[in-house]
Task: structure prediction
Amino acid sequence: MADLTQLVYLDFSNNKFSGSIPPLSLSKSLTRISLSHNNLTGPISSFHWDGLVNLVVLDLHNNSLNGSLPTQLFSLPSLQKIKLRNNQFSGPLSEFPVVPFSALNTLDLSSNNLEGPIPESVFHLQSLNILDLSSNKFNGTVELSSFQKLGNLTALSLSYNNLSINAGLATPALPLPLNLTALKLASCKLRTFPDLSTQSRLTYLDLSDNQISGSIPSWIWKIGNGSLVHLNLSHNLLEDLQQPLSNLPPLLSTLDLRFNQLRGPIPTPSPYSSYVDYSNNRFTSSIPHDIGLYISYTIFFSLSNNNITGIIPKSICNATYLHVLDLSDNAFSGTIPSCLIQNEALAVFNLRRNKLIGNIPGELGHMCSLQTLDLHENLLDGKIPKSLANCEALEVLNLGNNGMNDTFPFWLKNISNLRVLVLRGNKFHGHIGCPDSNSTWPMLQIVDLALNNFNGVLPEKCFSNWRAMMAGEDDAQSKSNYLRFKILQFSRLYYQDAVTVTSKGKEIEFLKVLTIFTSIDFSCNNFQGEIPKDIGDLKLLYVLNLSGNGFTGRIPSSIGQLRQLESLDLSQNKLSGEIPAQLASLNFLSFLNLSFNQLVGRIPTGNQLQTFSENSYLGNRGLCGFLLNESFKAKDATPSTSDGKHSSSRKEIKWEYLASEIGFLTGLGIVIWPLVLSSRWRRCYYKHVDRILSRILNHQNKQRASGGRRSHTIRRRRM
Result:
């Protein structure tokens, strides 16, 4: 390419080119270089740009270029746009000479590793329209008034650095540039609102992740003369909305107030809002009965984790474009509106931890789009609607901790995307299993059937179909994936699924669920028979809890193949035989409970099994072994019925040290006791003792006489 001296326009963007950028300094006529979205590496040296006096656009974004930025770039007289975002440039951005009447209007260095203070030279680029330095490591204190010099600035982004922005204007009569349309100051240590009341063109404002406290000023709704489209004040310390609360801007499509301390009634959204998030605040009262008039175009609506009471109004069914509805962690009462669950656009429906009663409405259509249905911890009863089988995209079904009374939902067997099934803490009963199906839930990774009345034998067939718990998938890739729903096709907004799992004897709430995390909890049911050997095929299993059932037979040695297992609970069953030696190879095991079974033999030796306390083996009469460097024989105990924990306050008797003493005393008692009680035994005993003593004394006298002669002879020979 170095020989293309007449080249004017170079566009190799959106390909898979790799390696370094070739020298282009001989192509003096180049006006545009676009190499974005490739796999280019290496630094960009100053000689790349020597002589490119006609270059107008340099676009290298979304590569892996590194090194420092050459200051010569800013000396190119015709250059108008520098786009270097999403690379790996590092080091300080040095001061650079500003070309008189510089034409540079776009400087985008976002998402790199640049550090140090923002150079003063930046504030002399008079033609700048767009300045984006976000997501770097710039530090120091920046006066917001410094940007008054950039009168043509329309977009400013300093978010996610180590900067401290002082929002006070040194000269109040000279506000920020009046042409601003976008201002992004997220995570800039702001303590107060910058005065933006005179901004007549501002449409995008992001002040999230700061330390702003107090009230949301009423002037903020008037920014842009009603043209404000995006407002993000999340993750601050805001307490209320300044009164009187005027109508929200009519074009406000995104309003994000989550993670503050806002209280009082919820503000009525704009009628054209598409994204409304009021979650994790202190809002009270109830949802306005006419809420449906204001969210008819809304795609995402969340009131999660507030103090909202009352019923869910039926007018919410007017939100026919709604993809995500999250009303979890409130105090809603009443029933679930049947029209709401019939919304064919709804993908995430989360009502967990409320006080809802009645049945789950059962009229889900064939165009059902549900991916997440979370009704955990309410007061629901009745059965799972059969029409839920129409929701073929369903990934998360959480009905735990309600009062539902039904059999195992085998009719959901054809939902191949199901990843999380939680029926915990209900009144489900009968056998589990999926008859006449060889492909039941291949993606299932979390299944929790605990605290129900299920019975019968565990079907091996279902275990063998849960391929997501088996080895073979790309583990490295899975670790970077979460269960989530993308809200808009071309946006960066996601809804994260959450689930509560009992692991290592404790309830843990995962706010993000890795697709590689796997768990099986069948505890506290009435299952019987042997534990299927095929369970050893689930090599990616992290948590296995089968406690509180009636399982019999031996612990399958195949459990030793579960090399990822961190928590194993088989307590309170009727398991017999020895503990398989293969369990000693579970190197990641940090919780083990085999107590209250009928296990016998010696606890296998191994680095892992010897780290557990005796409580892991309680209530197995025939079990013995060395534990914590001390000899141990399992105590005969009964399981606690209060909180499941066993008292460790009693001092343990070390029977192995007392065994010989007890044997000696027992034998001595057999001899002495008859002598005390019977005179005939005493006479016989003393007669035999006298005979024995007389023989011993006569023998010793003969030895002394012979020994005396020998010693005399020896002394004489030495002389």
In short: Residues 628-636, 641-662, 675-689, 696-719 have pLDDT under 50 and may be disordered. The two ends are 118 Å apart (CA to CA). The CA atoms of residues 671 and 677 lie 11 Å apart.
